[in-house]
Amino acid sequence: MDKRNTEEAIMRAAEEEFLDKGYKLATTTKIAQRAGVTHAMLHYYFRTKEQIFLKVLDKNLGELFAYQRNTMVLGTSFWVTFSGGVSVLFDFFKQHKQLLGLLYDVVKQNPELLLRYKENVVDMLSHVSASHQKMLESEIAAGRCNPISYEQIIFQVAGMTISTFLLLPFVENVIKINEAAIDELLERRKEEIIRTLHYRLYAHLETEA
C-alpha cells in the first residue's frame, strides 16, 4: 500500500470509528485495526487522535463548503441561491447522518477541540456568508423580502436542520421505520424547512400583493 492509499485508508477507518464510537471512546488502536495498518504506522501519519479527528472534520466540512460555493451562481435571485444552499446543506447531512451527532457529542465532552477549530470554520464560512448576507441586505433594501437579520435567518436554518438529524436516531430506533420511509420523511422535512423559510422572508409581502 503506497503512502497516499495508506493515509486514505486511515482516514476512512478514523471516520468510521469516530462516527460509530464518538470521539471519546474511539481509539487509535481500533482505527489502525480498521485501516489494516500497525499502530506505529498510524502514528507515522498522524501523531494524535485529535490530529486525525480534525483532519476528518476538515474533509467533511471542505466537502460541504465546496457544494455550497457551487450554489452561488451569478445572476440568480437571492431566493434561488439561498434555498439552493439550504437544500445542499440538508442533503449533505442526509448523506452524513451521524456527523451532527458526533459534533454534538464533542461539544458536550471535548469542547476545546472545536474551539481550536473555530478559526478554520470561520475561514471556510466567510466567503459564502458574506455573499449571502450582501444579497439579503439588497433584497430588504429594495423591499423584495421582509426585514430579518442575516444572523436570525441562519439561526433558523441551523436550528431546523440540526434538530432534524439529532432526532433521527430516535425515529430510526424507536419508531422502527425502514430506510425508504426515512428517505421520504427527510425529503418532506426538507421541503417543509424551505417552505417555512420562504414564509418568513416573503409571506407579508405576498399578503399585501
What tags apply to this protein structure?
209 residues, mainly alpha, 84% helix
Question: SSE layout and pairings?
Answer:
Blueprint: H1 3-25, H2 28-35, H3 39-45, H4 49-70, H5 78-95, H6 99-109, H7 111-141, H8 150-175, H9 179-208
Helix pairs in contact: 1-2, 1-4, 1-6, 2-3, 4-5, 4-7, 5-9, 6-7, 8-9
Keywords: DNA-binding, Membrane, Transmembrane, Transmembrane helix
Transmembrane segments: 72-93
DNA-binding region: 27-46
Q: Can you offer a commentary on this structure?
A:
The protein has helices at 3-25, 28-35, 39-45, 49-70, 78-95, 99-109, 111-141, 150-175, 179-208. The chain starts with a helix and ends with a helix. 16% of the residues are buried. The radius of gyration is 20 Å and the shape is globular. The protein contains nine helices and no strands. Helices cover 84% and strands 0% of the residues.
Question: What percent strand?
Answer: under 5%
**Alpha-carbon distance between the termini?**
65 Å
Structure annotation, total helices: 9
Shape: globular
Structural class: mainly alpha
Mean pLDDT: 85
Major beta-sheet overview:
none
Element-by-element helix/strand order: HHHHHHHHH
In short:
The protein has 9 helices and no strands.
